[in-house]
Amino acid sequence: MENDPHVAYLILVHRFPEQFKRLFKAIYHPQNHYLIHIDLKAAQVFTKTLKSFYKTFQI
Description:
Layout: E1 8-13, H1 17-27, E2 33-38, H2 44-54
Parallel strand pairs: 1-2
């Protein structure tokens, strides 16, 4: 079907937020599915940075 996801991604993240943002922008497509795991050991500022980044995408 046309609206079915094309690809499902599992991404584990714990540092380098700018690198993750570049990767995500490169692979993003609204019909895909994304499971992004932010490690509990990651700094709080890292988590906040990524949460605000996600708001610009339909995930």
